[in-house]
């Protein structure tokens, strides 16, 4: 049974509160909506309008400890629940997410800035992980192994690892939480979710829906922290022996800090870090298809996606055609603005540091001789965080943008001659999350797919994520996989059981 409980906390903006019953302005610990111990708060702004959405608690080490206490206590009983119970819990949560999809999408657009159409797509995508893991919960099977002697039975049991901390970024405030929490709950773990300081409201709304879905107190906790408290909170999580799993999505830099910090008490770590995806167009490719995919793959979430195409490589014979068609589509298809407005396709960048970084990369490249085909500037009349869709060619290794993850609406197109050369260039980087290529040559498809040093590949396809697939990278893009049947692995301990001296 779903409870109809819908606890409203005091919200600063009465207008938004009336519109969004799921807009919460407190943390969620042990089944209760709570302020920070020291009552500290911080404001969260809508990046498109700069209007303050509301304030949320600026939680610190003490609050983190309370959340870990709650998750630890809840784990004592939750670990023993049946798979069917957890499957039903997740299904209830999923049903409520579907029921509240439109409200979740609007909250997401308010805090992240992406267009409502993109938010709706993210909610559908994010919900699908909870649905998927509600099904996977009942398929976490152990194993019976062939015994070494005839009086033994050898087994592998799979047990929940314990309390899991889920630290998530601002670019997919819904899906990055559901992808982790769905798997953790399916496995029988309890969790502490720390959403990004830029987008805490979607995570808080999900906590309300989890409560409504009947989650026992302490199974899901959400703590909100401002930028200045995040490192301390992260360290408190890593230092606490009771937390057995840290699952993080975010920058490579912070991922490395957490990886190091988790070494001391050897936690399980799942890291989904930065990418720098190559997008290769071979001369056999269907160019119109490649251009359409490039538009989505580059500009989804205004380029702020870790699997965004970051380096376009186009074979010499089709370079002109691809570049001019892509430029035309960029100028025709993209409408920037407040994501709540109907015709807007793309929103602003998330924050000042982000737009400053994007602009710096573009200006550095142009000043060193890159060719600017369009954009290359801020659009202050739309708002402080809007940047014009930008296309650059003639980029070389002396320019910072050559090897950096751009995380903005800036496309860089390189020209190449041979397959060997482009593979060398594409792989000549310390990260390897996603990669894409376009070819109609079957042998080339298998050859290139085998040689690309990434965790995920789109062949003649630019939108590859789904709950069924294993999401994750190689090299410095991270460890572990999310989604798919492998998504639960990081939340499970394998226990080998040897039953000896059986009398037959
Ligand atoms: P971005 O640069 O894209 O904002 P970050 O890696 O800084 O990505 O942030 C991703 C998540 O990690 C956010 O929830 C943020 O608050 C959190 N975070 C940032 N620094 C730390 C840290 N030192 N320890 C733990 N979490 C952190």
TrEMBL record:
Keywords: Oxidoreductase. InterPro entries: Ald_DH/histidinol_DH, Ald_DH_C, Ald_DH_CS_GLU, Ald_DH_N, Aldehyde_DH_dom, Aldehyde_DH_Superfamily. Residues 33-496 form the Aldehyde dehydrogenase domain. One of its GO terms (molecular function) is succinate-semialdehyde dehydrogenase (NAD+) activity. Gene3D superfamilies: Aldehyde Dehydrogenase, Chain A, domain 1 (3.40.605.10), Aldehyde Dehydrogenase, Chain A, domain 2 (3.40.309.10). PROSITE patterns: ALDEHYDE_DEHYDR_GLU. Signal peptide: none annotated. The keyword Oxidoreductase applies. The keyword Oxidoreductase applies. One of its GO terms (biological process) is gamma-aminobutyric acid catabolic process. One of its GO terms (cellular component) is mitochondrion. The active site is at residue 272. Pathway: Amino-acid degradation; 4-aminobutanoate degradation. Belongs to the aldehyde dehydrogenase family. This is Aldehyde dehydrogenase domain-containing protein. It comes from Cotesia glomerata (Lepidopteran parasitic wasp).
């Amino acid at each position: 049974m779903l409870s109809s409980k819908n606890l409203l906390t005091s919200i600063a903006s009465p207008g938004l509160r009336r519109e969004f019953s799921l807009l919460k302005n407190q943390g969620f610990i042990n089944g209760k909506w709570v302020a920070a111990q020291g009552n500290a708060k911080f404001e969260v702004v809508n990046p498109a309008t700069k209007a303050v959405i509301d304030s949320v608690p600026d939680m610190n080490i003490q609050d983190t400890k309370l959340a870990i206490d709650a998750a630890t206590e809840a784990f004592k009983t939750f670990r023993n629940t049946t798979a069917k119970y957890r499957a039903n819990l997740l299904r209830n949560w999923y049903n409520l997410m579907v029921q509240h999809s439109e409200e979740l999408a609007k909250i997401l657009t308010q805090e992240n800035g992406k267009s409502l159409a993109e938010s709706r797509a993210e909610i559908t995508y994010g919900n699908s992980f909870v649905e998927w893991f509600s099904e996977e919960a009942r398929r976490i099977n152990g194993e019976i192994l062939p015994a070494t002697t005839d009086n033994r039975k050898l087994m592998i049991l799979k047990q929940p690892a314990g309390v899991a901390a889920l630290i998530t970024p601002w670019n997919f405030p819904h899906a990055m939480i559901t992808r982790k929490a769905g798997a953790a709950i399916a496995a029988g773990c309890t969790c502490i979710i720390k959403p990004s300081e830029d987008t805490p409201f979607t995570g808080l709304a999900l906590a309300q829906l989890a409560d409504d879905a009947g989650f026992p107190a302490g199974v899901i906790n959400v703590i909100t922290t401002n930028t200045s408290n995040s490192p301390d909170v992260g360290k408190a999580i890593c230092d606490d022996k009771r937390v057995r799993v840290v699952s993080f999505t975010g920058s490579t830099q912070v991922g490395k800090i957490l990886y190091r910090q988790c070494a001391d008490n050897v936690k399980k770590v799942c890291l989904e870090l930065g990418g720098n995806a190559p997008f290769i167009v071979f001369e056999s490719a269907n160019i119109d298809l490649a251009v359409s995919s490039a538009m989505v793959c580059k500009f989804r979430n205004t380029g702020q996606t870790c699997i965004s195409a970051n380096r376009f490589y186009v074979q010499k014979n089709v370079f002109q055609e691809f570049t001019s068609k892509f430029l035309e589509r960029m100028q025709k298809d993209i409408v920037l603005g407040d994501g709540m407005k109907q015709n807007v396709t793309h929103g602003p960048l998330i924050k000042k540091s982000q737009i400053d970084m994007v602009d710096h990369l573009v200006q550095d490249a142009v000043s060193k001789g890159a060719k600017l085909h369009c954009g290359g500037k801020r659009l202050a009349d739309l708002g402080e965080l809007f940047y014009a869709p930008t296309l650059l060619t003639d980029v070389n290794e002396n320019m910072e943008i050559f090897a950096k993850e751009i995380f903005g609406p800036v496309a860089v197109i390189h020209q190449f001659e041979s397959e060997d050369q482009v593979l060398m260039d594409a792989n000549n980087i310390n990260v390897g999350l996603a990669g894409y290529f376009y070819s109609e040559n079957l042998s080339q498809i298998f050859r290139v797919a085998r040689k690309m040093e990434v965790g995920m590949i789109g062949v003649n396809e630019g939108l590859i994520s789904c709950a069924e697939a294993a999401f994750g990278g190689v090299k410095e893009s991270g460890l572990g996989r999310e989604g798919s049947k492998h998504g639960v692995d990081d939340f499970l301990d394998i226990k080998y059981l040897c039953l000896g001296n059986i009398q037959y």
